[in-house]
Automatic annotation (TrEMBL):
Biological processes per GO annotation: amino acid transport
InterPro entries in the record: AA_ABC_transptr_permease_3TM, ArtM/GltK/GlnP/TcyL/YhdX-like, MetI-like, MetI-like_sf
Keywords: Cell membrane, Membrane, Transmembrane, Transmembrane helix, Transport
Protein name from the UniProt record: Amino acid ABC transporter membrane protein 2 (PAAT family)
PANTHER family (UniProt xref): INNER MEMBRANE AMINO-ACID ABC TRANSPORTER PERMEASE PROTEIN YHDY, MEMBRANE COMPONENT OF AMINO ACID ABC TRANSPORTER
A family per Pfam: BPD_transp_1
Amino acid sequence: MSTVALRWLHCNLFAKPFDAALSLVVIPALAWAIYASLHWGLVEARWEVIGGSLKVLMAGIYPVDQIWRAWFALAMLCAMFGAGLGLAMRPGRVALTAVASVAILIAATVAVVSGAGAGVLAAGSAALGLAAWSAVHHSARAQRLVLPGLFAGVAAIFAVLSAPGFEVWGGLLLSIVLTLTVSILSVPFGILLALGRQSRIASLRLISTAYIETMRSVPLILVVYWVWIIVPLLAPDTSVPSLLRGMAGYALFFAAYVAEYVRSGLQAVPKGQIEAARSLGMGTWTVNFDIVLPQALRVVVPSLVGQILDIFNGATLVFIIGLTDFLRAGQMILADPQNGGRTYEIYLFLFAVYFAIGGAITYASRRLEAHLARGSR
């Protein structure tokens, strides 16, 4: 064992004089950085600020007496994410053990910070996600119900959470719901734009191209703010909540990028298949939605998942219309003079959560991409 380790060190770290010199500089520096980080995190940091502010970070200013609605939304989100995993990867023993271990750790942390009841609810939500993962993977009927179940789940979340008012939504819950809703709305609109840009009808092609290029030429913050301002001018007698106006702005903006992703996928489909379908008498609608789109969407899965991450990370811009997203909730906590010295703890927690969610989405997308690739061979 020691011989193998010495051989590995020689080949990878000390093979050449420059490699040896670089290793002698980098390894001690890295060891010191790890030691300093662990010492600060275990000895000097005051993590009680996270526990005392967990409700604000997770749900913003949502009423405490209505917080059960937020727990319902969490359970639905876990179930939907588990169903998505069921389409992407097999719930093997190793994968289930790893995910269950992480869920138990999170539930235990929540129980310590917010009480046993909250820990039980967190564990129950995780168990629901694991059950959905296993059920969808092992049942073809459940797989066919994933898409309508996704729409039904989002509708249920809105129906339950909206009772106290949209203006009290906030924290990580707002960021996730906004990301999920905008992702669902932008995909069909983007597909229609992509098909319109390749349409034989000149006017439709011109309108689609103009819309896509306009949205891609302006920043997201401008589109969100513009929609937030223009809706009351167009419908002065109708009160549209800021959250819904913000989601509309996000969906209109990201649909243009979906259209370009889908257009690249459409161009990757061999023209021979389109010509063969038309020679069989298939109409344009049938050719596009039965032959072309399934293959095109398979190609652009990585790009579409990357856009989900862009939406999630861009959710911080909702502060311009008065909403409190996850990052803004952390800044609100730091605005309290009692927490003014806990900047590192708050921002490290925000970084860890963003990284964990982004990593989970990326890993699931890679598994889905591999699954689709196996189906195409």
